[in-house]
Amino acid sequence: MNYVPSWLDLSGQVAVITGASGWLGQALARRFALAGAAVALHYFTHPETIPALLEDIQREGGKALGVQANLSQEDGVDALLQATLKAYGKVDIWINNAGTYPVSPLLDLPLSQWQEVLDINLNTVFISIQKVARQMIAQGRGGVILNIASIEGLSPAVGHSHYSSAKAAVIMLTRAAAYELGPYGIRVNALSPGLIARPGLEEAWPKGVRSWLETAPLKRMGQPEEIAEACLFLASPAASWITGANLVMDGGASCRPIF
């Protein structure tokens, strides 16, 4: 049996995790369920990963449901929120994790791809914050909104002008939302990961992985489970006086000197 300290115990709470079919999303789902939260797991692509994830959580005694929706459309966010309320009656925690990560040089970047990246990585966050905050205000108990940003929102990368721009906007949207929603007891924070390990990454991007391992002070990539642990902290009572923050988790990569 896993011991959960009282300050990390989410028993009785309901957490919505977007992009739960990805590697990070799956780690978030498992960690929050282990901490006692009933979880609503959003997915749009890779639906084949969801049944096993739900089965794993339920086998361990957790509560979980899966909801497929396009969150770049308001109807999709409404569908996810309403499915959560129908199943659990409330929402306490909402994690904006869904995103896309295409590569295109700036001079070759078509407007359609620019718009798609902003739709998925930024507009979904805006729509979700607005709708879930209204629900949390109506519930009258406050809540937590956590946005997965990126270190690329703080420092650009070649071929990622659209992605970096969207994540930079997510970080500022986090701060703006924290300021406006604080009086309702709603905390809003961001977490900016660096390079996270996943199966096949070293084969697909050997140059990038090698460069990361050579220059990051901790000399390794992050694990999805490590990001999930930090998200649990930010969503828990242990972080009750933290809002408007952007936690950088990159193994020290952003500490590298300019000269």
TrEMBL record:
Belongs to the short-chain dehydrogenases/reductases (SDR) family. InterPro entries: NAD(P)-bd_dom_sf (IPR036291), Sc_DH/Rdtase_CS (IPR020904), SDR (IPR050259), SDR_fam (IPR002347). Pfam families: adh_short_C2 (PF13561). This is SDR family NAD(P)-dependent oxidoreductase.
